[in-house]
Amino acid sequence: MDWSLATAWWIAAGVLIAVELATGTFYLLMLALGACAGALAAHAGLGPPGQMLCAALVGGTATFLWHRRRERHHPAPAASNPDVNLDVGQSVHVDAWSADGLAQVQYRGAAWRARYVGNLPAQGGRHVIRAVDGSCLLLDR
């Protein structure tokens, strides 16, 4: 059986896709795109250096763009994401703050420790939950 370089590129793309399916990382799919570009370059008659250059350019660019997209669209951490943590955005009443910026508040029928994370000076009154850090509510006005 006589294998061409294009066949090796297609096999590499298939292996990368199979490993991606097992691990769930999209970065391997981007590299598989590069391997497909290398196979197409082989079909077009480019030599091994041209094939590798095409594969590196397409795979590297796709990986870079995917990484930038993920960074830009990375959701807020679960502690402060109202889609994940339903407490975020709810209101609580603070009677008084201690000197270290902590308070005890009643929320959902239980006593919670609260910490002020706002820019204004901490005062008693209505506050909004901005995040939850373990069993401590992080509050802002």
TrEMBL record:
TM segment ranges: 7-40, 46-66
All residue ranges annotated as the NfeD-like C-terminal domain in the record: 85-138
Biological source species: Pelomonas caseinilytica
Organism lineage string: Bacteria, Pseudomonadati, Pseudomonadota, Betaproteobacteria, Burkholderiales
Keywords: Membrane, Transmembrane, Transmembrane helix
Full protein name: NfeD family protein
